[in-house]
Amino acid sequence: MTTSIRSVLVLSAALLLAVLAGCPKPQSQTETAVPTPSAVPTPSVTLSVFAGAAPKPALDVLAANYQKAHPVKIEITYGGSGSVLTQFSQEHYGDVYVPGSDDFMDKAVAKGAVAKDTRAILAYLVPVLSVPKGNPKNVKGLDDMARKDLRVVIGKPESVCLGAIAQEVLTKQGLWTKVQPHIANYASSCEDVLNNLLLGEADVVLGWDSFAKQHPDKVQTVALPKGLTKTRNIPAAVITWSKQAEAAKAFVQYLAAPENRPVWSDNGYTPPTSGKASP
Q: What is the pTM of this model?
């Protein structure tokens, strides 16, 4: 074989191999193509929620559920209802306000910190005396809070809804000055009020009826006199300075939606029969 013929054959073989290498491998009948996993949607909106501690058990659940169903990230700052109101009002920042009681929402409306027409009722709470299960100190009513042998805990009246209520009802009964010397601690939030009781650092607290529902093996309720104070509600509203008001409004409506009322009741709250608060 001449050199020229051999060169042609080598070149042809090389070309053939190149063509074969460039062809896709035929897929056998037993092979299954692996699908490309779909990308997890990236949150397009981050909502900053400022909340009192009273709604925390249900609010945490609902926020988690909302994030699973919507491309939204929910960031919640908890604290005393008055403390967080002061925080976002001074900073002119935030999207949604969820105080532990309607009296602090009234303050937010009065100072123009929330959009009044977005206000919605999420659940109801009843102020009560909360004591350890079994009521070991035999607390029967408000008068007992003046006893020297009791460790009394209330929320800070200026920044915690339960503290403001405690001062209100004790003043109405002429007991405020008598109880003050026996107050062992002024709690920084409704959750802190409850924790003082759960940790054995209080014999009686001015609390919510939800405390005993959430911790039936540890907390017991002593009712307040009828008519002494009103049933309170947990409201929500869009913060005036929100830069994503529509997304914030959608979240408020979700929190108040009838289909989410079981989340509130499962966590010890009384759901409303109507989701919208009166202007």
A: 0.78
